[in-house]
Amino acid sequence: MIPKISSSEITPKSVYLSRRDFIKAAGVLAGSLALTACGVAAPETAGPTSAAPADGTAKSDEKGSPATSYRDITTYNNYYEFTTDKAGVADLSKNFATRPWEIEVGGLVNNPGKFSVDDLVKKFPPEERIYRLRCVEAWSMVIPWVGFPLAGLLSAVEPTSAAKYVRFESIFKPEELPGQKEPWYPWPYQEGLRLDEAMHDLTILATGLYGGELPAQNGGGLRLVVPWKYGFKSIKAIVKIELTAEQPATLWSSIAPNEYGFYANVNPQVDHPRWSQKTERRIGELSRQATHMFNGYAEQVASLYDGMDLAKNY
Amino acid sequence: MKRDFAGHALLQILVHLAGALPLLWLVMDFFTANLTANPIQAIEQRTGLTAVSFLAASLACTPLAWLTGWKNLTQRRKALGNYGFFYAALHLLTFFILDYGLDFAAIWGDVGKKAYILIGAAAFLLLLPLAVTSFNYWMKRLGKNWKRLHRLVYIISPLVVLHFFMAKKGDFLRLSGDILQPLAFAALVALLLILRLPPVKQALLQLKSKITRGAAV
């Protein structure tokens, strides 16, 4: 006979997670003691309240800019589905389940299907991509994502010749994402890319951060990362990907079409009615720095827009 | 009479406490690294929100005094307005010094021509003479004109609300985006201005005397 285990005897996730954090912290502490004993400073990883899944190395992007701290990345989040208060997202999303996570891929494809993130990472091994993220609000970060190129998944579902665009849709669950109860937004969040943008090698689906799992506040279970576009294009908590013939509507361009276009490429020459797009503040730094065309990825992506008027197609 | 004096002093203390607390709180949050990962933006937003709150509070004094008959309230308008100016000045200084490092070429060539910045700047420039003439010396010297001058606040407050709307992500004409806070202030300021319209004020006072007479009978 199988003994009955009452649910109260099962260790809650928060408890075993905090145990893991404790063990991890103990390990880091022991390691740093050993290092300081040899006169070597321990690599700085996270703030006191965050358990950074650190893999111990100092990270920087290809231009040598250091990665933003795990603490800043996970406590300063533009995620209106939870709250417009960037510092409040981490707390409000702490019970949001990012596993198991399933997405539906369909539309103009030969092999539509449902995929769990656990299956996806087996099929498309994630790699680390350290990207700059430039928010339309003129702040930026350098983020060590873990993810795989979207192109792999799209190729697997075989877009038909009629497919020209990719539409992404976020989760809609107002009971868990309180911001979705606000009537001022056409939820769920949706975004779109042209098929060639979606197939570009820089475009990834992220499943992790700093070598660990992708926290809920950063878009877990699964998010898009398109590093040459303003941050709002990189849709979080994706549950649906659809190949379409027509350019899909996007959340911010339906709210304020004169401010947010479909392309939203980082472009210091195209003005925004509110924020400076010529300069940006890197989180953790005090002075502003110049914003670069396509967020510094012009060499890789400029050819996607040959012959296009980027002031018109903002 | 004695009791009224105590009430007067208490109200004065409360106003100055309310004026000092947001700054103390901000300084404390600064030193405890509690201003998000983007502290300059947080200081800009908090000083702005505090400024518009004090402007609304100063506008609320007069209608509240009519309704409650508590004349002390009207004497606190000036202090509340001055705190509004103080936080607006901090808001502006944060923008010029912390955010743009006094790089005026960058400000003018970049954000300086944006409508919401110009509207905010206009509101501040109009507020400046009110703050300067808030001393008793100017009150006496300007006589009736003092009151006329200070009616500029009826123009300033809608400008400030408009600046607030435009600084948020969204489109207030379509009632979409991050508009809840500015919408709340717009409703409050509109109400406080409408109550001042002579027919509205009269109707309100009539209603009030009816109610108090009813209570007396």
Shape summary of chain A: globular
CATH class of chain A: Alpha Beta
* Number of continuous helical runs of chain B: 11
CATH architecture of chain A: Alpha-Beta Complex
Strand portion of chain B, in percent?
under 5%
Q: Kindly, what is the distance between the CA atoms of the first and last residues of chain A, rounded to a whole number of angstroms?
A: 66 Å
- Helical element count of chain A? 8
Structural class based on helices, strands and sheet pairing of chain A: alpha+beta
Let me know the largest β-sheet of chain A: 7 strands, mixed
Strand content bin of chain A = 15-25%
Spans of chain B of 5+ residues with little confidence (pLDDT < 50)?
A: none
DSSP strand count of chain B: 2
| Overall domain count of chain B | 1
List the helices and strands and how they pair.
The complex is a heterodimer of chains A (314) and B (217).
Chain A: H1 13-37, H2 70-75, H3 89-92, E1 102-107, E2 113-116, H4 117-123, E3 127-134, E4 139-149, H5 150-157, E5 165-170, E6 190-194, H6 195-198, E7 204-209, E8 212-213, E9 223-225, E10 238-244, H7 251-255, E11 279-282, E12 289-290, H8 298-301
Parallel strand pairs in A: 1-10, 4-11
Antiparallel strand pairs in A: 1-2, 3-4, 4-7, 5-6, 5-10, 7-8, 7-9, 11-12
Chain B: H1 2-31, H2 39-68, H3 72-75, H4 77-99, H5 104-111, H6 115-132, H7 136-142, H8 144-150, H9 153-167, E1 170-171, E2 176-177, H10 180-194, H11 198-216
Antiparallel strand pairs in B: 1-2
Helix pairs in contact in B: 1-2, 1-4, 2-4, 2-9, 2-10, 4-6, 6-9, 7-8, 9-10
Tell me what you see in this structure.
- The complex is a heterodimer of chains A (314) and B (217).
- Chain A has 314 residues and is of the alpha+beta class.
- Chain A has a single domain, classed as Oxidoreductase, molybdopterin-binding domain (Sulfite Oxidase, Chain A, domain 2, Alpha-Beta Complex), CATH 3.90.420.
- Helices cover 20% and strands 20% of the residues of chain A.
- Chain A has 8 helices and 12 strands.
- The longest helix of chain A has 25 residues.
- Chain B has 217 residues and is mainly α.
- Chain B has one domain.
- Helix content of chain B is 81%, strand content 2%.
- In chain B, strands 1-2 form a two-stranded antiparallel sheet.
- In chain B, a hairpin with a 4-residue loop joins β1 and β2.
- The two termini of chain B are 26 Å apart.
- Chains A and B meet through α2 of A and α5, β1 and β2 of B.
